[in-house]
């Protein structure tokens, strides 16, 4: 008589681990591409990252051509946010700041932009009710360029 083999009662998890590792690599490769806001050439400055407990900061982006965009926690990199003028910025930012007075406010300005334009937008945001306004910069390149 031939001996019957006992059925295997263990689950083989090796294929699941392989799939999870492939997904991990895909997510690691695509995560840097998911940035928010308008593409601007930020100045480089050595600074410490801000500990931020808010998920949706108010980000005002300024391009080199002096166009201004405002967004509130956008996750889609293709969506630039709402284009505003200096005159309508106070009204639109004021609505957000009245609804959420603790929202952090940041300016992301192109490094070729005139300093006076950035200060003008900061003043408008402070008139709208922002308690403090932060500036977004890129970390400097190692080795200098």
What does this structure look like?
By secondary structure, the chain is of the alpha/beta class. The chain has a domain at 58-135: Nucleotidyltransferase, domain 5 (2-Layer Sandwich). The chain is built from three helices and five strands, in the order H-E-E-E-H-E-H-E. Helix 3 (115-128) links the parallel strand 4 (105-109) and strand 5 (133-135). Helix 2 packs parallel to helix 3.
Topology:
Blueprint: H1 14-30, E1 58-62, E2 68-72, E3 82-84, H2 86-99, E4 105-109, H3 115-128, E5 133-135
Parallel strand pairs: 1-4, 4-5
Antiparallel strand pairs: 1-2, 2-3
Helix pairs in contact: 2-3
Indicate the proportion of strand residues: 5-15%
The tally of strands reads 5
How much helicity do the residues have?
A: 25-40%
N-to-C span: 80 Å
Q: Helices and strands: which structural class?
A: alpha/beta
CATH topology of the domain at 58-135: Nucleotidyltransferase, domain 5
Unreliable spans: none
* Principal-axes shape call: elongated
Reading the helices and strands in chain order gives HEEEHEHE
Query: Biggest sheet, strands in spatial order?
Result: 3-2-1-4-5
The biggest beta sheet, please? 5 strands, mixed
Q: If helices are DSSP runs of H or I spanning 4 or more residues, what is the number of helices?
A: 3
Q: Briefly, what CATH class of the domain at 58-135? A: Alpha Beta
Radius of gyration: 24 Å
């Amino acid at each position: 008589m031939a001996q019957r083999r006992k059925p295997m009662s263990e689950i083989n998890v090796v294929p699941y681990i392989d799939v999870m590792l492939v997904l991990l690599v895909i997510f690691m490769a695509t995560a840097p591409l998911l940035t928010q806001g308008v593409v601007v050439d930020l100045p480089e400055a050595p600074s410490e990252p801000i500990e931020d407990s808010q998920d949706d900061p108010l980000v005002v982006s300024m391009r080199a051509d002096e166009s201004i965009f405002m967004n509130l926690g956008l996750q889609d990199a293709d969506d630039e946010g709402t284009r505003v003028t200096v005159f309508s910025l106070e009204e639109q930012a004021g609505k957000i700041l009245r609804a959420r007075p603790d929202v952090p406010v940041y300016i992301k300005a192109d490094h070729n932009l005139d300093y006076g334009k950035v200060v003008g937008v900061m003043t408008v945001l402070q008139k709208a009710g922002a308690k403090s306004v932060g500036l977004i910069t890129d970390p400097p390149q190692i080795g200098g360029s």
